Amino acid sequence: MERSRFLIKLLLPLTLSVFLFSGSISAQLKLNFYSNTCPDVEKIVRAAVTAKFRQTFVTVPATLRLFFHDCFVSGCDASVIIASSGGNTAEKDHPDNLSLAGDGFDTVIKAKAAVDKVARCRNRVSCADILALATRDVIVLAGGPSYNVELGRLDGLSSTAASVNGNLPQPTFNLNQLTSMFATRGLTQTDLIALSAAHTLGFSHCNKFASRIYSFNRTQSIDPTLNRQYAAQLKTMCPRNVDPTIAIDMDPTTPRTFDNAYFKNLQNGKGLFTSDQVLFTDLRSRSTVNTWASNTQAFNAAFTQAMTKLGRIGVKSGRNGNIRMDCGRFN
Questions:
Q1: What does the DSSP assignment read for 204-268?
Q2: Given 65, 69, 112, 312, which residue is catalytic?
Q3: Mean pLDDT, residues 202-215
């Protein structure tokens, strides 16, 4: 009896979290949601994203990361794009979001402007859906797989920095912590491994991994799971007293291509974060890493499935959302 009560207490918060984040999306999200109101929305967004991509490659990792941070905190509702105003500090100004590159926000804003230039589409397409479409498009532009994007999200009505607290995975997380956090959003361990491969693109700042190369523990300055040659390279790029905001590529081999090199890097001890490398050092996830390191097709299939599931988190409907006229502020 006591064991049963313990399990109920343990599982109830997890069950409630999954329920709250999943929402009733089965009937709301669908392909071609805008077929009657804005039938060319995907074409319009793709053109705007491509134009932005031609200006700077940062468009790719910035948009992809923006989508993840948005969905993981309060659901895929574009709340991360809201600017702080008055006495409210919005999500984007939380310390965990300050490193989000401005090009991601700019991508959504420009795509929204392009959509609204079409009379029949004006203020008919949510910023949340534009972000979801733009994310798929940047992945393709970087050489990654294409996939169908479910649409029908409404934009959120709230955005607070406080809501970010404890709701984003940290670079120091172990597999248990990662698995638990993803599970509360209805995502499996396989999903988290696939989504972690987004680190094949973009950059990080020295202060996010400095402890792995300078002060790992009392007896070792360098994390023993880190490739020694790679650690030396990181020290060169990030000297002990360097500006902590200096950025380096997260993927040391193909940083401008969406591919499965991320998993090959893990096999060679070149995962930048503890939360990356643990996917290989932990035997529970190692086999998946090994499979995807040698099978691009299998990885692409898992990644697109995980992205679809990620896009379903916390979708707003009815009175819980609307379609913003300006993605950066509430109507």
A1: EEGGGTHHHHH-SSSS-SS-TTS-HHHHHHHHHHS-TTS-TT-EEESSSS-TTS-STHHHHHHHT
A2: 69
A3: 92
